[in-house]
Amino acid sequence: MVDASHGHGQPSPSSTPSTASLYPVISGYMASQAIHVAARLGIADLIAAGTNTSEALARATETHASSLHRLLRALVGLGLLEQIMPTRFALTPLGSTLRTEVPGSLRNAALYFGSELMWQGWGELLHSIRTGETAMRHLHGMGTFEYRAEHPEQAAVFNGAMSELTRQVAAAVVAVYDFSKFERIVDVGGGNGTLVAAILAATPHLRGVVFDIPSGAAEARSRLEATGVAHRCEIVEGDFFQSVPSGADAYIMKSIIHDWDDARSDTILRNCRRAISAHGKLLIVERIIPARVEPSIAHRQVLMMDLNMLVMAGGQERTEAEYRALLASAGFNLTAIVPDRAPTNFSILEAAPTQVVQRP
To answer: What positions carry a catalytic annotation?
Structure first.
């Protein structure tokens, strides 16, 4: 006998997706804001230093005690804290990543991605989808980089978040790619030098250049000195839309090309093509959108960042085919893709200058 209640193409209860799996995604902004507030208040640092009760934490953070207690319980639910007594809490290993300046810290990332700037921008996602205009320009009349130039406190948080991510990516990049074949490497848009410092530390004979605008490279000297490679690395200030330092046999860019549309990216790549030695290599460190996307954590990371580029910067994440075409238009051949491993899920796209054949 056929169960009429499941006829006419209606799914059976056993095949109906569970709402329990979708609800946490729908309400994900709640968790993001709870973590952001915990980072703002310095909860992890305070607990690590021994201030670990609701009342003591409220006094230290000048917050409402019972309300803070409710936040602390929520952080337990998110796996960041452990409730060892009704009003006493301890950090979990995950919660320890919200501490300041510890290995693997994500405190600045929590401050940045939960900030009002990001909050407002993502609130205008529909506008960006409808028009193609960034939410930043819609809300503030300027691009992300211009906004940060006028708001140094926002720039500091952003730079801190990018440095945290770059530390993770740099360790993975050094583990999967052999830099010993190079003599001189230029980190284009290298910021505070985190990436090139890690590469130089792992490759004793290599010399490097951090190339960025003055505000971007402001902290590079201290980072290079802290890593012990300052004597092998120059800091050169400039604009990669105008030119990049010439003559190196390796140029590397991490999270640069995804900030820009194809036209602006082409300008950067052509400047690298003019500067690179004949047998040099261009290394682009980015996440790559797979040709066929699936509901996985790795794919979700790159797809959400692609939307973030739409909303905030006006750039985009790209597929392998899109990178191949972009590189070809600027005079490069994509020669290899070296995949990184979780949790960063970046890849190194290695490209070589197209050799121009001289006609007789």
So the answer is: 258
Q: CATH assignment of 28-100?
A: 1.10.10.10
Give the pairing type, strands 318-319 and 233-237.
unpaired
Element containing residue 82 per DSSP (H, E): strand 81-85
pLDDT digit string (tens) for 148-194? 889 888 888 888 888 888 888 998 999 999 999 999 999 999 998 99
Considering the segment(s) 169-353 as one domain, its CATH architecture is 3-Layer(aba) Sandwich (3.40)
The C-alpha atoms of residue 90 and residue 93 are separated, in whole angstroms, by 10
- Cis preceding-peptide flag for 93 (omega within 30 of 0): no
Q: Which two tokens stand for residue 281?
A: 């290599």
The model's pLDDT over 303-335, given as tens digits with 9 standing for 90+, comes to: 999 999 999 999 999 999 999 999 999 999 999
Answer yes or no: are the C-beta atoms of 179 and 203 closer than 8 Å: yes
Element holding 289 (H helix, E strand): strand 288-289
The sign of the CA dihedral 339, 341, 342, 348 is negative
Distance CA(218)–CA(235), nearest Å, equals: 9
Closest CA to 133 of 141, 150, 112, 257: 141
| Residue count of the chain | 360
Find how far residue 11's CA is from the centre of its chain. Answer: 40
Per-residue pLDDT tens for 39-64? 999 999 999 999 999 999 999 999 99
Q: How far apart are the first and last CA of the chain?
A: 83
Return the domain boundaries, the chain: 28-100, 169-353
**83 and 77 Cβ atoms separated by less than 8 Å:** no
124 backbone dihedrals φ, ψ, rounded to 5°: -105, 25
